[in-house]
């Protein structure tokens, strides 16, 4: 990716930490957090966060459009969430069994979604999607699971996007379809025959590096109907979109209710928590599977989850993140037009993605993001971003000043259109 010919940010501490990490951590960093996948200039290490701002280890401050890749729904260090977590921490976190917060949170969580009659808690989104598939297979006694090509559902062997270190057998019973494509979904269901356990769907299409797509109602309805016909479970992966798209569940927007939903990321505002919700018909299967973890019932994250729910519901966080995302999107669209640069903005406004036209190598996107970064705005050049309750109109407008300069640089480097 081309580097930006502008003064660099301070990066001395970051460079030192990267060198040290490279010696003791394979590759220096794993997975989605590896800053090597970002344009030059992006920091790897962060010192702190507050509201919608983060500071890297060299003291550079950024308006944060990643929100920790989703978890920080209410902003970093939300006072009510942190106070609830601190109160629980003073009492105990990891005990010989769960705290009362477990039941309190389960009740609140189930009350929130029309399709949820019960909930199981875990720690990560991968736990939740995996448990969802286990419940479906336990309930049906069937093996085949339909998943969309390129959709991200976590990093266990059945779903990790990079198949090194796994076997073909790990995926022997997956059948792939194309998101929003009814015919491909029908073909996949036909291929499963009478062995269909589940259809897994993302809340919306948010595959990295390509335009996002909201779920088409006819696609969602067909997924529902195919599951009903086969006695299979419709599993909605809410891990990315949950709490930002619709309070009661993302597919309420298309009028389709899943049998199981997988949640994580935003549900405890940065504390480690995941959940699977399900319908009564699957309660017995959810009772029969063996699924657990040393830290899954930790009280601190559950106290944080309860506080997150309270704040999210009393402030209508869905409306706020949508409004801020739309303000950002409108500003970006106007700037792109005025600089004569073609961009595509897709998906829900609260989870925005900006891709440049004629930019297969993300060269324009990289210059744009690196220049915004240099001006104190942390964007992602090819992954969806996230808005939070902490973003204000002033923050969005400040960020738009940086993106205006970034568009100017893109136009200068690459020309208009
Ligand atoms: C992040 C993500 C996961 C995995 O969650 P982890 O907490 O990283 O394990 C699963 N599904 C979707 C849609 C995600 O965005």
Describe this structure in a few short sentences.
This protein has 417 residues and is of the alpha/beta class.
Polypeptide structure, described:
The chain is of the alpha/beta class and 417 residues long. The protein has two domains: 12-67 and 317-414, Aspartate Aminotransferase, domain 1 (Alpha-Beta Complex), CATH 3.90.1150; 79-315, Aspartate Aminotransferase, domain 2 (3-Layer(aba) Sandwich). It has helices at residues 12-24, 79-91, 100-112, 125-140, 182-192, 217-230, 283-288, 299-315, 317-339, 363-374, 393-414, and strands at residues 46-50, 53-56, 61-64, 118-122, 144-148, 174-177, 196-202, 233-237, 260-263, 274-278, 343-346, 353-356, 377-378. The strands form three sheets. The chain has a seven-stranded mixed sheet, with helices on both faces. A hairpin with a 2-residue loop joins β1 (46-50) and β2. α10 (363-374) crosses α11. Residues 124-126, 129, 152-154, 202, 237, 239-240, 264-265 line the site of pyridoxal-5'-phosphate.
**Mean of pLDDT:** 96
CATH class bucket of the largest domain: Alpha Beta
Query: DSSP helix count?
Result: 11
- In CATH, the topology of the largest domain is named Aspartate Aminotransferase, domain 2
